């Protein structure tokens, strides 16, 4: 089986018509060149895409920073040289993601780094956004639980807020799905409010 033609990276990208710059914005994005995509799947680029994917997912899918590949074999050096359009002869290479993003956009692939990797598959995961969403979900859980506590007679109990804080610190609820955790917290508060209504004695 022959290796995909690296020349396809630079072939087939017609110069844009200036009169179409505004009219073309509503058109569907042009499909990337199939042969160019096939070149990107050659085995010599496997380690590059693995490293770039991990970096993008940590970066919020933004093409910033660098990846460093060590112990490159001859096949990898050849593939990287063709992809980057510059000779790589050392066993170690540092690739700037902004440069790689620009190279792909200007090539027959015609799209940026994140979109190219999504095209090659599997889908990218924005881990930073996922962490932020999880943190926001946890904050909502505890603000709702505190509001539920404040709406019951437990609000006047000196032990109630430390009890809720101890649950929060233990991490027991945050290991559950958000809806389940919220239901568990509010049910526990309602149960305690029923057990210790008004100004009755505090638990021993």
N/C terminus separation: 78 Å
As a percent range, the share of helical residues equals 40-55%
**Rounded radius of gyration (Å):** 28 Å
The ordered H/E elements are HHEHEHHHHH
Inertia-based shape = elongated
The share of residues in extended strands comes to under 5%
User: Strands of the largest sheet, in order across it?
Assistant: 1-2
- Please report the number of helical segments: 8
- Structural class by secondary-structure content: mainly alpha
Main sheet summary? 2 strands, antiparallel
Average pLDDT rating = 83
The count of strands amounts to 2
Oligomer: single chain
Spans of at least 5 consecutive residues whose pLDDT stays below 50 are 12-28
Number of spatially distinct domains = 2
Write up what this structure looks like.
It comes from Streptomyces phyllanthi. Residues 1-28 have a biased composition (Basic and acidic residues). The protein has 204 residues and is mostly helical. It folds into two domains: 6-125, no CATH class; 129-195. Helices cover 50% and strands 4% of the residues. It contains eight helices and two strands. The chain has a two-stranded antiparallel ribbon. The protein is elongated. The relative contact order is 0.10.
Short structural summary:
Helices cover 50% and strands 4% of the residues. With 204 residues, the chain is mainly α. Mean pLDDT is 83; it is low at 12-28.
């Amino acid at each position: 089986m022959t290796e995909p033609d690296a020349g396809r990276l630079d072939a087939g990208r017609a110069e844009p018509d200036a009169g179409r710059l505004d009219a073309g914005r509503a058109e569907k994005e042009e499909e990337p060149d199939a042969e160019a995509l096939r070149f990107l799947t050659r085995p010599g680029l496997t380690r590059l895409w693995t490293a770039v994917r991990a970096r993008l997912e940590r970066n919020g899918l933004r093409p910033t920073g660098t990846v460093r590949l060590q112990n490159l074999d001859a096949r990898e050096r050849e593939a990287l040289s063709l992809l980057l359009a510059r000779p790589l002869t050392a066993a170690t290479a540092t690739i700037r993601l902004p440069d790689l993003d620009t190279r792909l956009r200007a090539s027959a692939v015609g799209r940026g780094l994140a979109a190219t990797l999504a095209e090659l598959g599997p889908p990218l995961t924005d881990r930073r956004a996922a962490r932020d969403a999880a943190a926001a979900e946890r904050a909502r859980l505890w603000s709702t639980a505190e509001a539920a506590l404040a709406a019951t007679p437990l609000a006047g109990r000196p032990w109630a807020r430390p009890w809720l804080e101890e649950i929060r610190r233990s991490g027991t609820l945050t290991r559950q799905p958000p809806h389940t955790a919220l239901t568990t917290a509010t049910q526990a508060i309602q149960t305690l409010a029923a057990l210790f209504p008004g100004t009755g004695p505090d638990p021993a």
